[in-house]
Amino acid sequence: MWFNHQKLIFFVLTVVLCNCGEVKPESLTVGEKKCDHCSMSIVDMRFHTQVITYKGKRYHFDAIECADQFINQKQIKPKHIYVSNYLQSNEFLPKETAIIIQTNKIRSPMGGGLAAFKSHDDAIPFQN
């Protein structure tokens, strides 16, 4: 009997500890989700942005400007904000380390011209 309880405790601890890892952004397929701010389908993955709250709620956006407006309007406290690397849309960057530029050389889904890059050198060709 004691051995069965020990196995149960071990199993529960394993499940709990496996789910306590680092929070990572989710990969989406084109059109799988709609923007949580403007309800447009997320189809241009170069601008896909994700916000994760301290409670673990995940929000998806079709543009950086949608995420910024959503955070301000809903007054949420994000734990993580991830932006897609404009040059490699399958790579997410933490917003606090990404180089975000606003330019008329890039047409973002909401027209704000915001794009995220991994380095200053990557952003130079797109700056006005």
Helix content: 25-40%
Domains, number? 1
Percent of sequence in beta strands: 25-35%
Radius of gyration based on Cα positions = 19 Å
Global outline: globular
Weakly predicted, low-confidence segments: none
Number of separate strands: 6
Sequence of strands across the biggest β-sheet: 2-1-3-4
H-E order: HEEHEEEEH
Structural class by sheet pairing and helices: alpha+beta
Q: Please state the average pLDDT score.
A: 88
- Tally the helices: 3
Give the N-terminus to C-terminus distance in angstroms: 72 Å
**Main β sheet profile:** 4 strands, antiparallel
Pfam families: NosL
Protein name: Accessory protein NosL
Report on the architecture of this protein:
The protein has helices spanning 2-18, 64-74, 120-123, and strands at 49-53, 58-61, 78-85, 88-94, 99-102, 114-117. It is an alpha+beta fold. The chain has one domain. The strands form two sheets. The protein has a four-stranded antiparallel sheet. Strand 3 and strand 4 form a beta hairpin.
Layout of strands and helices, then pairs:
Layout: H1 2-18, E1 49-53, E2 58-61, H2 64-74, E3 78-85, E4 88-94, E5 99-102, E6 114-117, H3 120-123
Antiparallel strand pairs: 1-2, 1-3, 3-4, 5-6
Could you give a quick summary of the protein structure above?
This is Accessory protein NosL. By secondary structure, this protein is an alpha+beta fold.
Task: Please describe the structure with a list of short key phrases separated by commas or semicolons.
four-stranded antiparallel beta sheet, 3 helices, 128 residues, alpha+beta, two-stranded antiparallel sheet
